[in-house]
Amino acid sequence: MAEAAPFIGILGFGLTVCKDLYTYYHAFKGFDSSISSAYESIAEVAKVLVLHRDSCNDPDIDRERKDRVAACICSCEDALANLNEKLQQLKIADPEGFRQESKALYKRHAFPFKKESLDGLRNNAVEVPRRLMFAIRVLDIEGKLKSHRVLRQLEAWSSKITATVDQIANDTNRLCLIAQTDEVDKILAWLSPPDPWTNHNSARDLHEDGTGRWVLESDAYQAWRSRSIRHLWLSGKAGCGKTILSSTMVEDLQHHCQQEVTFGIAPFYFSFSDRGKQSYEALLRSLVAELGTRVPGLATLQGSYDQRHTSQGGLSVARLETILIAVLASYDTVFVVLDALDECPQEADARSRLFDGLNCLAREASNVKFLMTSRDHPDIRDSISDLPAEQLPVKAGAVDHDIRVYVEQQLSRGH
User: Could you give all domains of the chain from N- to C-terminal order, each with its CATH number?
Assistant: First the structure.
């Protein structure tokens, strides 16, 4: 039937476009809701086109109904052409090899993963089934779904979609490895952040099993971790073990955040003995490095690094704040543990600038939660009240218990 040729060609063209789009996006399906939605729309278009192709080849369908269906299919030609245009743009932007593939994933601002690109792709994909709804009614496809021929086609598509689950898991692991690449090393060199983990590890070396449990089990800490309260201030005298308690809470939060991939954790230990860990700027560099060099913050940091030569003012405090706020936005919740605020000096207004900065971050990033420790100095108390934060004093009884456990453990080792 000569009249059937145009719409049969359109069906074949549409299936080819869907297959190529499906192949391109299937590995990235699990990383973003926009990508997932576009991916599912493409799969739906392909299913509908397969059903129409098989039904139009059915000799039991009369000529009149087939002509009406052909008209519906031809009306989809421009929407399918738009999908093909997106496909050709993807082929131009397509990264080659795993390293480039990973980088493309992080550069969500690049064409294949740009929100407006995905929205346009999805809208074009949705338009095809919408225009074919009349044809579906004409062919009574729902009744024909019971045919083994159509079911086999659907099962083939279903198996292909199911097979992507393992691929997505593998891709997630591969993405985590990006933090070890030379690219990230270059970003870290650009940031030049202080390393909070040297302080953390030193504190863990002094920690004894069985100590610090009281702070993890306290109502205030549990309420803060569960997001019932936003900011928490652990206050206590010098030498009462606040830094070790900070490290204990960081360990707990690391375990907590492993169960929630959209949660972030970043510690910072202010230190009298290290001038590189006494300022608000040092804190910003550390937080950007901690939160920006792993999923999901890496895409934002990568973009800032790529624009470093065109940015005005270099890595100023204002620029660092802008980058950090953008990085924070890629998480649902970020737990920031700031130990020893009193070791940020008052000289040159360093401590005043620190609290001004914390208030700015808390105001601009509603998903950030500060846990701070310090001695109960009047200026710190006044500044923290502006956030505000709930106070959790270190009680003498809890400290005495921890000291007793520590001494007993040391004696048992013969120290």
Answer: 2-179 (no CATH), 182-412 (3.40.50.300)
